[in-house]
Amino acid sequence: MEEEFSADAELLALSREQPEAFGAFYRRHAQNLLRYFARRTLDPETAAELTAETFAEAFASRSRFRDRGSGAAAWLYGIARHQLGRYLRAGAVESRARRRLGMPERDLQPGDYERVEELIDFAPLRAALADALDLLTEDQREAMRLRVMEERPYEEVARILECTEATARARVSRGLRRVTQVLEPTRRQMLREAD
User: Fold this and answer.
1) What is the CATH number for 17?
2) How far apart are CA 57 and CA 183, in angstroms?
3) What is the pTM of this model?
4) Is the domain of 21 the same as that of 105?
5) What is the DSSP string of 72-89?
6) Are residues 101 and 153 in the same domain?
7) How many domains does the chain divide into?
8) Separation CA 123–CA 78 (nearest Å)
9) Do the Cβ atoms of 72 and 9 come closer than 8 Å?
10) Which of 33, 70, 75, 136 suits 179 as a labelling partner, its CA being 20 to 30 A distant?
């Protein structure tokens, strides 16, 4: 473990003069950092974006890194926590660091989504979601399918379900509340395992 700490610190120090050395630091930590974000956001695209933001910020501030005994990985995860906090507060990933470095926007291809999902075992979440959906009434399931999955407006959901808009809203709200209650223990367990 001590060797890894010192190797990370050496890579960051070397990258000040030889920026390509940062690539080795990136390769060493990218997969675990992506997993860290994916488990917290449950969204592959956001996880990839936050990972890119974190490494962009780390690269931009690498000259300020000082090894105080906790290692470069701890420094990197400090930046990651800051990025995640900003994302959670703002509701979206800001790309200032990437733009400042002239890095292009990253478009995820279908294979990229699969790769992120492979890093995380979504099986418990899928099973919990299936259980939660089984607990809903048929009306709630159908209302949620139309509104949440197909993103139809409530007016259209009400017309299809032959009910009032207020009833459609209530069915979706009750369904979401029930699904959230059932998924919460699984989500908490996944977060504990990620730490």
Assistant:
1) 1.10.1740.10
2) 33
3) 0.51
4) yes
5) HHHHHHHHHHHHHHHHHH
6) no
7) 2
8) 29
9) yes
10) 33
